[in-house]
Amino acid sequence: MTKQNPAKHFKWTYTFVYVLLFLINILPLITEKPYQPQDTQDVIINLLMVSIVPYQAYGPIFHIATLLIIFAILWKPGRLGRLMAGYIGVNTFIIAAAQTMGQTEKYGFVIHLSALLNMLILGITWLVVAFRNDIQPTFKKPSLLEYGLIALALLAFWGPFADVDGAIRPRFDPLLLLTGSDYGLTFCFTTPVFLLGLILIYPNVNQFAYRITAFSGLLYGLFNLTHWFNPATQWMGFLHLPLLVISIYALILPRFNMRAKNQEA
Q1: Please, which residues have CB within 8 angstroms of residue 162's CB and are 6 or more apart in sequence?
Q2: Angle at 72 between CA 66 and CA 77, to 5 degrees
Q3: How far does CA 219 lie from the centroid of its chain?
Q4: Cα separation, 243 vs 250, whole angstroms
Q5: In the 3-class helix/strand/coil scheme, how is 37-65 assigned residue by residue?
C-alpha cells in the first residue's frame, strides 16, 4: 500500500477550497427588482452606496478597538490569540450583516449573496480558531517590503475619500484615521489590516484561516479593478490596492517561509 504524499494532498485540498470560494463569489445577487447579468456591477455599486450608511456612526469603535488590540499584543505577546482571532471573526460577521444587504432606489432590496456567504465562512472559521486558541500573536520585526505593506494597510485603515457629486475624490482628513466609516464595516478596507497583522505574526497562525482570508482578499481585490475603468471611481480603485497587494503577499509568504526553512536545514 503506497503512502499518500502529504504535500500533494495539501496542494489539492487548497485548490479545491480556492475553487469553491471562487464559485461562491460568482453567485448572482438577490434583488427585489430584476436586473440583467451585464448590470451586476451596477447593482453592487448601488448596494455599496447605501448598505453601511445606517451604521456609519459606529466607525470609530472599530478604529479604537483595533488600536487597543495592537497595543495589547505588544504588551503581552503570544498570549492573546483568542482575542485576535475572535475579533477578526466577530468583525467579519458585522461586515456580513452591514455591507452585504440594503435598500436601493434602483433595484429595491438587494442581498449580495456571494459576499454574504464568503463573510459567513470566514467569520465561522475565525471563531473556531479563537475557540481552539490556534494562533500565537507575537509581532516580528518587519522586512523592508513589509514596511511598505504597513503603509498600504494604514491607507485602508484611513480610507481618505469622499463622494463628491457622485464621484469618488481624495479627502486627506487626519480625523478619518479615527472616524472613518469604511474600516470595520467593509471587507475591502478592513481585510488589509487583518492580513497585515497575520503577516507580522506569521507563521504563528492557523494556516487554513490565514489562507482563505488571503484568497478572499485576492478575489475582491481583482473584482474591484473595475473601478479603474471609470474616471469617477478611479480613486476608489487606488484605495483597493492595499487589499490586492497585501493579499498577494500573504498568499506567497508561506512559500518564502518554507524556502527559508529548507535553506537553514
Answers
A1: 168, 169, 170, 171
A2: 120
A3: 10
A4: 10
A5: HHHHHHHHHHHHCCCCHHHHHHHHHHHHH
Residue 11 falls within a domain, yes or no?
no
Angstrom distance (rounded) from CA 125 to CA 260: 28
- Cα gap 126→178, rounded to integer Å: 25
4 within domain boundaries:
no
pLDDT in tens, the chain (265 residues): 445 555 565 678 899 999 999 999 999 999 999 999 999 999 999 999 999 999 999 999 999 999 999 999 999 999 999 999 999 999 999 999 999 999 999 999 999 999 999 999 999 999 999 999 999 999 999 999 999 999 999 999 999 999 998 899 999 999 999 999 999 999 999 999 999 999 999 999 999 999 999 999 999 999 999 999 999 999 999 999 999 999 999 999 998 877 666 555 5
Task: Quickly list DSSP for 117-172.
Answer: HHHHHHHHHHHHHHHHT-----PPPPPHHHHHHHHHHHHHHH--EEEETTEEEE--
Residue 126 located in a structural domain: yes
Number of H helices, E strands in the chain: 11, 5
Q: Is residue 193 a contact partner of residue 88, using CB atoms and an 8 Å limit?
A: no
Amino acid at site 265: A
CA–CA distance, 187 with 218 (Å, rounded to integer): 12
User: pTM of the predicted model, to two decimals?
Assistant: 0.93
196, part of any domain: yes
Question: How many domains is the chain built from?
Answer: 1
Domain range for residue 116? 27-264
